[in-house]
Design a protein that fits this description.
Layout: H1 18-26, H2 39-52, E1 56-57, E2 88-94, E3 112-119, H3 127-139, E4 147-151, H4 159-164, E5 172-174, H5 177-183, E6 189-190, E7 201-212, E8 222-232, E9 239-244, H6 245-253, H7 259-277, H8 283-289
Helix pairs in contact: 1-7, 2-6
Length: 296
């Protein structure tokens, strides 16, 4: 989740080449069928689309944050200093120690990429939503009947716009503002506990309903939801939002990705980051990979 109120709380270091390294490892995962899109395909599509909209790509921060929060691993794209007067986007690699408890759930990955983007302060309230839904539905051809939205009454002004894209009121789940703030998970409000920047951002999240027979021989299809995006509502710092590239790729393929399959990608990316910046591997590296320190 991007957050323009969190700018500048840490000096970010650009990790040259790591994006390409992650992509090259991701590309090594074999397509499962002829309709398969890779994460790299989705990344290329996103890069093309956002540039077409007049956006400027900026450098991502290091996967290794250098701070104690999230055991030394970058949590989100909030450390990136978006220019409030410019339309910018980036591809930010992240990993979250808190996700370990959910590693058995389809779609939860040890390493993921946020397509983070901002809007200038003078943007219209509806502009970001039009941009995001045009990207998802018109550009990538995501089926709107499989989309849901979770938010609070603060997003009521966008409900007619959601409906115009095929996400009717029946697909919108309203949380009380108190519940959303208490959760702080980006589905109505973004404020992760103990986050060093103490963000407090009203949002809406976009979920996709996956229905797929994951294994040959399965009699019934498995149905579950994955969160695709968290979009911030306009505040005095402007707009910001984030889309998960891996989750978006799952939606395009209607097929989940799994934690264990992506552990080699995560390990490789962290090793490259540590070597490039001459940093020690963070504690989070060992926790996520299930290793003891100095036993990697």
């Amino acid at each position: 989740m991007s957050n323009m109120t969190r700018r500048g709380f840490i000096t970010s270091t650009t990790l040259l080449g790591v994006g390409l390294t992650i992509d090259s490892v991701s590309a090594s995962i074999k397509p499962m069928d002829k309709q398969h899109f890779s994460v790299e395909d989705t990344k290329k599509d996103a890069d093309h689309y956002w540039r077409q909209q007049g956006y400027t790509k900026i450098a991502a921060a290091s996967l290794i944050s250098g701070i104690d929060y999230n055991d030394g691993i970058n949590y989100d794209d909030s450390i990136q200093d978006y220019d409030p007067d410019q339309a910018q986007f980036l591809f930010q690699p992240n990993s979250r120690v808190e996700d370990i408890v959910n590693k058995h759930k389809p779609g939860t990955l040890p390493l993921f990429t946020i397509l983070g983007f901002s809007w200038p302060l003078d943007s219209d309230f509806t502009g970001p939503t039009i941009l995001v839904f045009d990207y998802l539905i018109n550009h990538l051809k995501i089926d709107p009947s499989k989309l849901k939205i979770t938010t609070t009454v603060l997003a009521e002004g966008l409900f007619p716009l959601f409906d115009s894209y095929g996400v009717s009121l029946s697909k919108i789940r309203l949380r009380s503002l108190e519940e959303a703030k208490d959760a702080g998970d980006g589905s109505g409000w973004f404020s992760p506990k103990d986050h060093p920047a103490a963000p407090a951002i009203p949002t809406y999240s976009i979920e996709y309903v996956l229905t797929h027979k994951q294994k040959k021989g399965d009699v019934a299809a498995t149905t579950y939801e994955i969160e695709l995006a968290e979009i911030g509502l306009k505040n005095d710092q402007g707009f910001a939002g984030g889309i998960g590239l891996e989750r978006l790729t799952m939606a395009r393929n209607n097929r989940a990705m799994y934690w264990d399959d992506h552990l080699p990608i995560c390990k490789h990316a962290m090793l490259v980051a540590a070597q490039h910046e001459q940093k020690q591997l963070p504690l989070g590296y060992y926790k996520i990979l299930g290793l003891q320190p100095n036993n990697d």
